[in-house]
Write a structure and sequence with these properties.
- The chain is α/β, with parallel strands linked by helices.
- It is built from twelve helices and 21 strands.
- It has helices at about 15-30, 45-50, 65-75, 105-110, 125-135, 155-165, 200-215, 215-225, 260-270, 300-305, 310-320, 330-335; strands spanning about 5-10, 35-40, 55-60, 80-85, 115-120, 145-150, 170-175, 185, 190, 245-250, 255, 270-275, 290, 295, 325, 335-340, 345, 350-355, 365-370, 385-390, 395.
- The strands form six sheets. It has a seven-stranded parallel β-sheet with strand order 3-2-4-1-5-6-7, sandwiched between helices.
- Helix 1 runs parallel beside helix 2 (about 45-50), helix 1 (about 15-30) crosses helix 7 (about 200-215) and helix 5 crosses helix 6 (about 155-165).
- The longest helix has 15 residues, at about 200-215.
- It is globular, with a radius of gyration of 22 Å.
- The relative contact order is 0.11.
Length: about 400
């Protein structure tokens, strides 16, 4: 299975833009591109999904075991011409002091060639000790090359290429010039999700075209095809049950944070997924349960409040006993109201509390759930399997 790992020396180096541009460019060549994202993330996978035209899957050591990660990777990469894994933060960053859950550890698990995206602003000769240090820190990691990003011009690029050639054996796969056209706006949780941008496809096409002119795609394909990885046994993807169960899922510009494998697991267990739009649909579809995932309801408060028929329908359904699972923005939507930047708008009201948005994060990082005996899962489920993550700027207040 051809595959490569896109990483960086540190976060905010531009690796997401380059990874999605690479996926889009390879797809335009007629290749089947399977994207993956290291770590718990919703927004980057949405962009990678749009770029590749195939669902992006998350690979995370905290919520998944190594065997599960390998199985998921094999299951989806085997049907593609190339798998592109985007890392999170820097190559060696992670919670474990020994690096057991780092990007490097994931690259090692798949014997993946690593391409480092280097934010080269203000750098010339200093890039050599940086790259030499990254090679020496964990010699077993295959740093196959670099992509120079945020270059100040052709002269800057030429200097960096000369330094890298003089002092290292690392191949340069491209030099990307600094250009606002490659920029995607951010907000408090990261990039603006692709489901909110009406011009997302146009932006991807532009980024793909620009990167195709500045990156050695043939060279990247060559190292990806030369990489070897032992295929892991894949999970049974056949539908296991035939049941009459309809799960309503909010999916629109306000709510779009879902993991592709969660949706597939529901369908595998026999559920029929019924998607609805919280901004425009006046009524709920006929469903047996609700799943309202994360998103940015705070940026759509007026529209959500205006759709009072749907808010009322959801409130009545929950009061009548309809099972519902909501997280992140979905939980905010079920509260009485959301307060943000001096404005307050009414929400569903199924939760007797109000949401207050703050400028700084109120919860950020991995979490483990403490079992109380009132959960929907059996008490004997190991705690390591009841793990999650949080990244929110909101609090609930009575």
């Amino acid at each position: 299975m051809a595959h490569l790992f896109i990483s960086a020396a540190h976060k905010s180096s531009g690796k997401t833009t380059l990874a999605m541009g690479l996926c889009a460019a390879l797809q335009q060549r007629g290749l089947k591109v399977q994207p993956f994202k290291k770590g718990p993330d919703y927004i980057d996978p949405m962009w990678l999904t749009a770029a590749a035209g195939r669902p992006c899957y998350n690979l995370d050591f905290f919520t998944m075991g190594s065997r599960e990660i390998a199985r998921l990777f094999s299951q989806h990469a085997q049907h593609a011409d190339i798998a592109v894994i985007e890392g999170n933060k820097g190559l060696y960053d992670g919670l474990d002091l020994e690096g057991g859950n780092s990007n490097a550890a994931l690259a090692m698990l798949f014997n993946a060639p690593v391409v480092l995206v280097i934010d080269a602003r203000g750098m010339t000769r200093g890039i050599a000790p940086l790259l030499l240090g990254y090679q020496a820190f964990e010699p077993d990691i295959n740093i196959a090359g670099v992509i120079l990003n945020q270059l100040g011009g052709k002269r800057h690029e030429a200097k960096l290429r000369a330094v890298i050639e003089r002092y290292t054996d690392i191949k340069v796969f491209g030099g990307v010039q600094r250009d606002e056209a490659l920029h995607i706006d951010e907000r408090h949780l990261g990039l603006i999700p692709s489901n909110e941008l009406a011009v997302a496809d146009q932006r991807l096409a532009l980024i793909s075209t620009m990167l195709s002119e500045q990156i050695d795609l043939d060279g990247l394909l060559s190292i990806a095809k030369a990489a070897t990885v032992q295929a892991a046994p894949v999970a049974d993807t056949q539908r296991r049950h035939k049941v009459d169960l309809r799960v309503g899922i909010a999916r629109d510009r306000a709510f779009g944070f879902y993991y592709a494998d969660d949706m597939e697991a529901l369908e595998r267990e026999g559920a029929q997924l019924e998607f609805f739009d919280t901004l425009h649909d006046a009524q709920l579809p006929e469903v047996d349960a609700l799943f309202i995932g994360g998103g940015f309801p705070e940026t759509h408060m007026p529209q959500l409040e205006l759709n009072s028929p749907l808010r009322g329908a959801i409130r009545n359904a929950i009061d009548d006993g309809l099972p519902v699972y909501a997280e992140c923005g979905g939980l905010m939507y079920l509260a009485r109201s959301i307060q943000w930047r001096g404005r307050c708008h009414a929400m569903v009201g199924a939760i007797p509390a109000d949401v207050v948005m703050h400028e700084r994060p109120q919860g950020r990082g991995y979490v483990r759930l403490q079992q109380t005996g009132h959960a929907l899962w059996p008490d004997e489920v190991p705690l390591r399997e009841i793990a999650g993550h949080e990244f929110h700027h909101s609090t609930l207040t009575n």
